[in-house]
Design a protein that fits this description.
Blueprint lengths: L10 E6 L42 H4 L9 E3 L6 H4 L5 E5 L3 H13 L1 H8 L9 H13 L3 H14 L27 H11 L3 E5 L3 H6 L6 E4 L22 H16 L3 E7 L2 H6 L4 E9 L9 E10 L3
Helix pairs in contact: 3-6, 4-6, 5-6
The structure holds S-adenosylmethionine.
The site of S-adenosylmethionine (SAM) has 23 residues, from helix 2.
Length: about 325
């Protein structure tokens, strides 16, 4: 474990790239089974959290690849942008960040009661530098999952860039964001709550390797791990105090191949680098550029090459 740093930006599509062996997503028919599609326009549900690497703006690229009638499994859920916009009746939504999963579980179990509690942290008095550092210290000292879950939401809306970043000792360490009037995301939370009550969704807090151990034939698995760096000097984001390194990338690729060979469809996002292409050599590759929105460094904003590796079970 080492200190957490800023990395994966929030993203939006910026065009297909040509010249590789990959296919272009723009030619794909949108509207496969299992996600919300109304009258030729995609009707999307916005996540209520800001999340580095969030895929809300890439849904049109990702969702058509997740067509299938099986159970939906998402080992690296983050803001759950993709899960929210799938309609699979049975879903497993996982993340290694325990506070995040506690937040989702409390919304699912308590609905309005949890929202009312979480909203108590959103007042003009709590949007000052002094109150922020007090609540950040309270979060770092808290042990009750419900309290930590509500404070995580407060931090996400009041901290710099909405970053969720922990140091090596597990302490949340993002500075005050100085937003004018952070809004409590009640409507988006309600839509999240509604989605969790359609069919059967299970939230789990495990390492991705354990999630893959439960993947079975017919499942549709979408993986959006912390990305491999684009350059040797680029940083990883530590979303939960852990570090996701090259060995993790290799193990993920190997588990994806095994799940595919056992009858699951597996779709993975990552940076488009020679190393990642080598890891997913047997998959169908869709490449495109994305616009970055969140970054520690201003110069790291801009376009970045990204890919989807698709192992589609027939
Ligand atoms: C790129 S983000 C996912 C973003 C998400 N697709 C969205 O739209 O918001 C990667 C996520 O992987 C989680 N993660 C990191 N290491 C993990 C591990 N070993 N097992 C499971 N989840 C992990 C992080 O906590 C983070 O939320």
């Amino acid at each position: 474990m080492r200190a957490a740093r800023c990395g994966n930006p929030a993203q939006s599509p910026a065009g297909d790239r040509r010249g590789g062996p990959e296919r272009s997503t723009s030619a794909l028919p949108l509207g496969g089974i299992g996600f919300f599609w109304h009258g030729g326009a995609m009707s999307t549900i916005k996540p209520f959290l800001k999340w580095a690497g969030g895929k809300f703006r890439l849904l049109e690229r990702i969702l058509p690849e997740l067509a299938g009638a099986g159970r939906y499994v998402e080992p690296f859920a983050g803001s759950a942008a993709v899960y929210l916009n799938t309609a699979a009746p049975e879903a497993v939504v996982n993340d290694v960040n325990a506070d995040l999963i506690a937040l989702y579980s409390h919304i699912q179990a308590e609905g309005e009661a949890f929202m009312a509690y979480a909203a108590t942290f959103f007042t003009p008095k709590t949007n000052t530098e002094a109150a922020f550092y007090e609540l950040r210290a309270r979060f770092n000292a808290a042990t009750a999952p419900r309290e930590r879950a509500a404070l995580l939401l407060y931090l996400n809306k009041h901290a710099y860039n909405g970053l969720i970043r922990y140091n090596a000792r597990g302490g949340y360490n993002v500075p005050f964001g100085r937003y004018k009037a952070p809004q409590f995301p009640r409507d988006d939370m309600r839509r999240f709550w509604e989605r969790t009550r359609q069919g059967h969704t299970v939230f789990t807090c495990r390492d991705f390797r354990e999630v893959f151990a439960g993947v079975r034939a017919g499942d549709v698995v979408y993986c959006d791990p912390p990305y491999a760096p684009l350059s040797a000097t680029a940083n990883f984001t530590s979303y939960a105090g852990n570090v996701f390194g090259p060995k993790d990338q290799e193990e993920l690729a190997s588990l994806a191949r095994r799940a595919y060979s056992q009858g699951a469809t597996v779709v993975l996002s990552n940076h488009d680098t020679p190393q990642i292409r080598a890891l997913y050599a047997g998959a169908d590759i869709l490449a495109f550029d994305v616009q970055r929105f969140i970054s520690c460094k201003g110069q790291a904003r801009g376009r970045a090459p990204e890919l989807l590796a698709v192992y589609r079970a027939v």
